[in-house]
Each structure stands twice: as structure tokens, then as C-alpha cells.
Design goal:
The complex is a heterodimer of chains A (about 190) and B (about 210). By secondary structure, chain A is an alpha+beta fold. Chain A has helices at about 40-55, 75-85, 85-115, 125-135, 140-155, 165-180, 185-190, and strands spanning about 1-5, 10-15, 20-25, 30, 60-65, 70, 160. In chain A, strands 6-5-7 form a 3-stranded antiparallel β-sheet. Chain A has a two-stranded antiparallel ribbon with strand order 1-2. Classes of the chains: A alpha+beta (about 190), B alpha+beta (about 210). Bound molecules: zinc ion (2 copies).
């Protein structure tokens, strides 16, 4: 099969597809990933999705100030931003920390399933393109570091502790990275 | 997997010289004389190079450069204690952390919200100016620089999340209240625009001759 490097355009031929890492000889960009296994991608993306709902519903931080016990979830935080007149910031937070990861993992699961089974699922071509862009726009990992920075900022001020939601977010993120590392869109197109 | 180029070791042949274009979906090299073609393998429509890549990237980079000014001047967070408000900008927040001797977190926030956006905007402008010109960095290093820009892209969103978390949590009415400032909108827009700018840049233009 003849192909070209997406980063520099050099023409290459691949003899067979045995799943090894392939590096462009001209610009050393990694062209195809490491261990590709669509079954693992399916399992890990479903696991990640299972953690997603509790991650959003349980508070990620709990704080005690002067006898008041306050906790926050992602939706509550976004709502406060929205009420302060920062609708655009609220929208960006909700999209990058909830909506995009949700779409990313749902579609990864869908396409992994598609490449395992014999038949072709509806709309899989369009879905495959969305997955590639959602990969860049999901920011669960940044959100997690953001929570930790807030904890450090508040630690002298109040009695603060990480909530259940934080650990759920951690698991969601961990399995999302795992699923992403086993998934390769080329695998899905090869079936055609 | 054996990889061999169609040319000799010294001179690689690129898709234009070969008379083909890459299908971005299934990675097949489509043989076509024109700049646009449908892939015979998967049917998706492809163009040889990203459309108006340079002008689009210039526009988005310059837009983020202009928005970066209000993002730094306007406050991103406002902490009100007993009705007394103290606003802080991005760099103001960093200085505050330094004064509280939280050095580690100070460096993290400084890198994510100041170094990364500045580095991204400067790198993109450097790549745009030197795209097919001889420069300090060779083509391989420029491609590496670009992938670094793409990799760190989303991390400058850190401060936006920090403000969101603080505003959601520290909300005790008159006693103690944290709200986001308008600088936050500009700052989030800068991050989004620089990410869009890097996505519209086509690194193959660095390697194309002429
Ligand atoms: Zn290459
Ligand atoms: Zn194709």
C-alpha cells in the first residue's frame, strides 16, 4: 500500500500492517501508533464512560468555611460563571470538560465495536472524523490539574478535601488515555 | 513493517512530485493530477493541502495576539470579602502566589497561563514567516516545533478551570464570594483561537519547494 507522511508529504510504501510503530524517515513524525487493539479500545472507552456520570454528579471538592459546608460539581461551577455574565467561559468549560470527552469516548466505543464486528454500523464514516478532532479538544486532564491548583490555593484558607467526583474524574481520564492509545482510526478504515 | 521511500536516500519524493494526494482518513495515496479527489478506498473527499492554510493561520494567530492584550489587562478573578472586592489579573495572580511563597504552584500557573500562550503565538508567527524560507531551524526542527505547539495547546486553559472551580466553590454571599472577571472570556478565546490556528496550519508547506 502506498501512503504519504501527513506532516511532510513524503511518499512511502507500507508492506504489511503488523501494528508496529512507524516513523517517517524524513521528518521523524510518528505516523502509526504502538500497540493497536480495537477490543481493548472498546473495553477501556466503555469503562471511561461508566465513570463519566458519577464524575459529573459527585462534587470534586468539599470545603468547610466557618461552619458552612460547601461542595462543587462541574455543572454548578459552570452555572456560577454563567450567572456572573461569563456565558462564553461557562460554555467553553462545559464543552471541553464534559461534552467533548463524552462524544470522544462514545464515538471511540462505537467505532471500536464497528471494527470488531462483521457488519458496518450506520454513520461510522462521519463518526470517525469527529473522533480525530475531539481528541484535541477534550481537556479532562487540564481540568484535573486545575482542581489541584485550586486546592493548593485554598489550603491555607479553609478546611478543604477532595470529593468523590475528583477520583471519578481521575479514573475517567486514565481510561480515556488508555482507550485512546489502543485506538487507531486506520484500523477502522482498513475494514472497508 | 518495512518502510521504503520511492526515491533515493538523499532526495525523498513527496506526494505532489509523485502525482498523488493523501487521504487523511484511510491514509491511502490517491493518484490524481488535480488538487482535489475522492478516495477510491474509503470514498472521502480530500484536498492536497489544507485550504488557505497560511492566510487562515495568520488571521487566527493575529486575532489571538490582539485578544491577548485585554486578556492580560482585565481581571480574571474577583474575590469579595465582606463586600470588599480585590480583583486580580493573570500575572497578578502569579505574583500573589509568589508572595504567599507557593513557589511550585506559582511556576505551574506562570508556565500554563503566560509562557505557553506567548510561546504558541511566537512559534506560529515564526513558522508562518519562515514557511518556505531558509531559517535558523531546519525543516525537521520546524516540524518538531509545530508538534510541540499542538501538544501544549490546551494546557493554557488551566487558569480558566481554576477560576471556574474557585467561583463554584467560594460562594458564601456577602461574607465571601469569588466571581470570574471579563479577562477570563478573552483569555479562553485566546486559547481556543491559538488551537484553531495550529489546526489550520499545514506542516507539509514547510517541506514543499518554492
Ligand atoms: Zn514526514
Ligand atoms: Zn481514503
Amino acid at each position: 500500500m502506498k501512503t504519504a507522511c501527513h506532516a511532510c508529504g513524503v511518499v512511502l510504501s507500507i508492506e504489511d500492517d503488523n501494528g508496529y510503530k512507524m516513523v517517517c524517515p524524513q521528518c521523524s513524525t510518528v505516523l502509526y501508533g504502538r500497540n493497536i487493539n480495537m477490543f481493548y479500545a472498546l473495553m477501556f472507552s466503555i469503562t471511561s464512560l461508566l465513570f463519566m456520570l458519577p464524575a459529573m454528579l459527585f462534587p470534586f471538592l468539599e470545603i468547610q468555611i466557618q461552619g458552612n459546608r460547601i461542595s462543587a460539581t462541574l455543572f454548578e461551577s459552570a452555572k456560577v460563571l454563567n450567572d456572573d455574565g461569563l456565558r462564553l467561559a461557562a460554555l467553553i468549560v462545559i464543552c471541553t470538560a464534559f461534552l467533548f470527552p463524552l462524544i470522544y469516548m462514545t464515538f471511540t466505543a462505537y467505532l471500536s465495536f464497528d471494527s470488531i464486528v462483521e457488519f458496518t454500523m450506520p454513520l461510522s464514516d462521519q463518526t470517525a472524523k469527529v473522533v480525530e478532532s475531539m481528541k484535541h479538544w477534550q481537556m479532562i486532564d487540564v481540568f484535573i490539574i486545575g482542581i489541584l491548583v485550586s486546592v493548593v490555593k485554598l489550603v491555607g484558607m479553609a478546611d478543604i478535601s477532595l470529593g468523590t467526583g475528583f477520583y471519578m474524574l481521575g479514573c475517567e481520564c486514565f481510561f480515556m488515555i488508555l482507550a485512546g492509545s489502543y485506538y487507531e482510526s486506520r484500523q477502522f478504515w482498513f475494514k472497508r | 513493517m518495512k518502510v521504503d521511500s520511492s526515491g533515493s536516500k538523499d532526495k525523498w519524493v513527496n506526494d505532489i512530485e509523485f502525482g498523488g494526494l493523501l487521504c487523511t482518513d484511510c491514509k491511502t495515496l490517491i493518484i490524481s493530477a488535480s488538487d482535489e479527489a475522492d478516495c477510491p478506498e474509503c470514498g472521502s473527499h480530500n484536498i492536497r493541502r489544507k485550504k488557505n492554510s497560511l492566510s487562515r493561520t495568520w488571521a487566527l494567530t493575529l486575532a489571538s495576539l490582539f485578544l491577548y492584550i485585554p486578556a492580560n489587562i482585565l481581571p480574571i478573578m474577583d474575590v469579595q470579602i465582606m463586600g470588599q472586592s480585590s480583583k486580580s489579573t493573570i500575572l497578578g495572580g502569579v505574583i500573589e502566589l509568589f508572595n504567599y511563597e507557593m513557589y511550585f504552584i506559582c511556576i505551574v500557573v506562570f508556565v500554563a497561563s503566560f509562557v505557553v500562550p506567548v510561546f504558541k503565538i511566537c512559534s506560529l508567527m515564526y513558522l508562518l514567516i519562515t514557511v518556505n524560507r531558509k531559517s535558523l531551524l531546519n525543516n525537521k526542527q520546524k516540524t518538531k516545533l509545530f508538534s510541540l505547539v499542538e501538544l501544549i495547546g490546551k494546557w493554557s486553559m488551566l487558569d480558566v478551570y481554576v477560576v471556574a472551580v474557585m467561583a463554584g466553590l467560594i460562594n458564601l454571599g456577602f461574607l465571601l464570594k469569588t466571581t470570574g472577571g471579563y479577562g477570563l472570556i478573552f483569555f479562553a478565546s485566546v486559547v481556543v483561537l491559538t488551537m484553531l490556528a495550529s489546526h489550520s496550519f499545514d506542516t507539509r508547506l514547510i517541506w514543499d519547494e518554492g
